[in-house]
Amino acid sequence: MDYEENKHKGEMSKTSFVMIIVLCLLAIGAISYFAISGMGTKVKDNGKSSSNDKTYSSDNDSYNSSITDNSGIMEPDFDVPEPSSSVGKTESNIPYEEPKVESKTEKKTQKTNNFILPVEGNITKGFSSTSLQYSATYGDMRLHTGIDILCKNGTDVKSACDGTVVAVEDSATLGKVITVQCGDDLTVKYCGFESLNVKESDNVKCGTVLGTSGTVPSEANDQPHIHIEVYQNEQAISPLEAFKLN
Length: 246
What we know:
Layout lengths: L1 H52 L1 E2 L6 E2 L58 E3 L2 E8 L4 E5 L2 E4 L5 E3 L4 E9 L3 E7 L4 E11 L6 E2 L4 E5 L11 E8 L2 E3 L1 H4 L4
Antiparallel strand pairs: 1-2, 3-6, 4-5, 6-13, 7-12, 8-9, 8-11, 9-10, 10-12, 10-13, 13-14
């Protein structure tokens, strides 16, 4: 009898132990389930709050975010500048503006000249405004405010530059003289003509034949030549320097 009671008690103890283990497993499973469910809900809530923190501005199409990462650094906000008023306009939308053209009074013209020697030949006397040179005609020393170019009588004398004839005259010392204005402040005097091809107010080009060479009375004892003087602002200067031929 005692044996059977002990046996019955042992079987009940085993059954109770098994039931306790099953209950423990169920409790652990329930705890795990609720723990996992809670984490999923938290993740969803975080996702919603993140999306709600982002705002879009319709005024300047800029994106602002207030998300804070794990390091605690706030993402900077970027401001997009207002678009230019010309953005989106096609070439046909832009009004046409007439190009500005300078009037004749606004234009500044500068007359330029090419220079040549009036005749081909050797220069027997050069320009001198300070030192004296010997004159075979007068037999003394005197200034020579021009240049003498050897040439036979009757040689064509050409204009050294473009210009206007401002004077045609006879001089007791220089013979027949033609004065040509070349630019605003430059005049050229050709002295010692035998014949003349131009008159006062004629326009001439560089190379125009003014006349033929003859005699310079104040230099009559020198070899046949043409005498040339150049004045700038009424001041005698070297013809070769003025013609840029030296």
